[in-house]
Amino acid sequence: MINYKFKFKTMSKKIQPLGKRVLIKLVPKKDKTDTGIILPDSQVQEIPRGTILKLGSECTSNLKVGDEVEWEMTSGAYNVKHDDQDCIILHEGAFILKYV
Question: Disulfide: which of 17, 27, 50, 88 matches 21 by Cβ 3.0-4.6 Å?
């Protein structure tokens, strides 16, 4: 029996998103407040936030490499490992904001 459940695909080659897709490095969850209080697991918020590493060749939005962005939780994210980092690939229309 084949187990189809996996968390991240392991890739040994460089990744280039195709079309209107974007490769994003995930920002780790905060387990402490800014003042140093350690949060229990039930209080740790999963904010979908990351930094753009690469853009597909057809991306037309005002996003660029290095932008910190947030996206909708329901977006169809494709999880990958890139340079030993947890990353995802999203469609460029999934983003709801970028930090300026």
Answer: 17
Separation between Cα atoms, residue 58 and residue 47, nearest integer Å:
27
**CATH code of the domain containing 78:** 2.30.33.40
Number of domains, the chain: 1
Mention every residue, 6+ apart, whose C-beta is less than 8 A from residue 98.
Answer: 63, 67, 68, 69, 70
Contact 52, 83 (CB under 8 A): no
DSSP string, 43-84: G-----EEEEEEE-TT--SS--TT-EEEE-TTS--EEEEETT
Query: What pTM did the predictor assign?
Result: 0.73
pLDDT digits (tens, 9 = 90+) for 70-89: 998 776 888 888 888 889 99
